[in-house]
Amino acid sequence: MTTNAIEISGLVKRFGSTVALDDLTMTVPTGQVHGFLGPNGAGKSTTIRVLLGLLRADGGRATLLGGDPWHDAATLHRRLAYVPGDVNLWPNLTGGEAIDVIGRARGGLDKAKRASLIERFDLDPKKKGRAYSKGNRQKVALIAALASDVELLLLDEPTSGLDPLMEKVFSDVIVSERKENTTVLLSSHILSEVERLCDHVSIIRAGKIVETGTLDQLRHLHRTRLTATMTDLSILSRLDGVHDLVSENGRTTFEADDDAMPPVLAALARAGASGVTATPPSLEELFLSHYAAPTPEKALV
Amino acid sequence: MTGFGSAWRLAFRRNRMFYLWWILGLSVLMPMTVTKYHDLVPAGESGQLVLAQLAGNPTMLALLGPAFDLGNAGGFTFWRVGTFTAAAVAMMAALGVIRATRAEEEEGRAELVRAGAMARSVPLAAGVALGLAACLVLGLASALMMLAATPGVGGAMATGLGLALTGTMFVGVAAVWAQVFPSARTARVWSLGIVLGGLYLARAMVDASPPSATVDAWRWAMPMDWAALARPYASERWWVFLLPLAVTVVLVGLAFWLESVRDLGAGLRAATSGVATASPSLSGSAGLSWRLLRVSIIGWTVGILVTAVGMGSMSLSVDSMFTDQPQITEMLRKLAGGTQAINDAFFVAMLSIVATIVTMAGVMLLSRLRSEETDGRAEVMLATSTTRWRYALSTLVPAILLPVVLLVLTGASMPILQALNDGSASLVGSLTKAALVLTPGILLVLGFAMLLVGWKPRWYGLVWAVIGWSMLASWVFALFNPPDWLLKLQPWGYLPHLPSDPMRWGAFSIELVAGLAMVALGLLGYRRRDIAGR
After folding, report:
1. B31-54 per-position pLDDT tens digit
2. Domain ranges of chain B
3. Which one of A48, A54, A109, A128 would you mutate to disrupt binding with B, by most B Cβ within 10 Å of its Cβ?
């Protein structure tokens, strides 16, 4: 077994004149739960569909479970399961039949796991495909994917349409998959979910990975927001790495670079500051800082 | 009817090209035939003789409907292409209404529209109104062009009304089925396959029967004959138009009532539950494909067998009524290609028509390969260990086998009644062989279809152009004495039509190889191209 479940380097995919993936590079080591974040149209689904061998890459290289996702598609697919973000079921097949059709086509599924997942996700498997709501269609695809023992899960916004209760069930299942050393690539918009489940995160924007690393690493690249009650601000304003210093009604707020934290904390102590709070950047802020910018300004890989 | 204006504009915007092409194509058919009248029917005695024999020939009556005054260009034209055109108008109307109503609803777009300031039945009203309007425009266009082509104001008006009202009946038929079934596909099958196909076949059988008072009475029960029974260009009977008008009103009314008692997105029957686990046979892409296609496969098989035996029953009257008549043979030759014996000509003509119809079945089955992809279900299956080829073959194989088997079955079953009647069992063998010889044409069309799926899936509609052309070529263009190569430029044109033609292995093998080559190329394309998602 290779140590990396997914290795992508310099991947390019064009649709006509649009460049969907522009020199995309990312790695997911075996056993990692990897969050894949990005705005709509950034290329998350395209990346996953290239990994599935549904799309042919125009340039670069991708390796999946040690094989070529295009040439070895059918054999690799025995070892992975996929959940699309927008599930459309066969209108005249029941949910249970759809689960079995997909599972059997992959090479069989674990009956006990199937039964327990149907119960946990509270799915009525006897309904016809056309009668399911969006959330229930999503559950069918999730159960079909999770009921088989695979090494890799490719999940493209798998919880879209699920209610919070079912999202919790999903999280629990992923946590137990992680214990079994299953690799998961989880594309998502729900940041709390990614924060809770993922060891690593990659942020994609306009077909490029703009940031990747553990959440802690990503936070280090960003400023921490601090507040304190203090009278003398001059000591702070003289320090490098302090930004947006504002004082209102005796309450001072500012942001500090990660490197500047030791001198800042020392300065706060010297100035006799009280009521000090320090908030690391949330994933949401990381996320927004990339989305709001007009062009990808940094590629910190 | 709050919101009718915006619903109408939306329906118009989404369907205008669909209707425009149908109207253009169908309204020129009859005026074009008029211009050929004097070439087809020579002046004087010999012309009258031809006409009298045509009007009594059951094969022609079965295909074309009852004949009234063939002595003038208008009357002849209505007989020669009117009933056929009316059936095509019915097809346009049914497809158009389902497209604008149930298909929109099934895709979830109707929900968006209905959530606006709009009365409940407005989307149906807009779809129906557009279908009715299209039928009327088509009727008006045909009437004006006929007026320009041949004298007779009444005849032109009756022609236009006949076409329009046959169409409006099927606006009603399709509107009703669109309420009954939650799937647009099922509504189409019932409107076209069962109602239109069944009525046309019933009409053919009645019209081919030896004339009697009973047959005349039965003819009034045949809605596909009503336009002809109004006798355009043959002292018109205007009151006949009340029949299709009444049927239209009743069916449209029924559709609105049905619409008022069902939920959005639902059919009439409450959704039933099924089984919680798939049966062992529902496994792999082949098992899935059989499950998805079996209703179509069984339906087509039953439909074609009924048609074959029904057509065979007509051959009995062909035999009893006809001796060698060069003019009729000539007419039939244009439909069948190089035929001598009348009875053979009848079967050859029927086999050619069935070949085109069963090929349509194959093209429809294969269209699943494309719709499964655009609906996002192909990617789910292709993300499993199903290979591209296996996935494509699971639909392609039945799409080729079904028409081939059905055509051979038609050859074998058409002469059964006649064989029972006079013990001529050899016909069963020779027509089975005749059917087999036509199968490369099927392969050619489906090879082309697979080529499109593999390389240019968006252009799949081109296959229908090929089928439409081959139908027009044998049904209508034969009248225009086009150059032989042009007439034969269709999938079954160059193949030998046994038993009247001698076997030509050249054409047979070339089409067979070309068909197989296109299938192989199409599969190669399907393996190497991107698979679309939803």
Report:
1. 888 887 877 777 777 777 777 777
2. 1-269, 282-534
3. A54
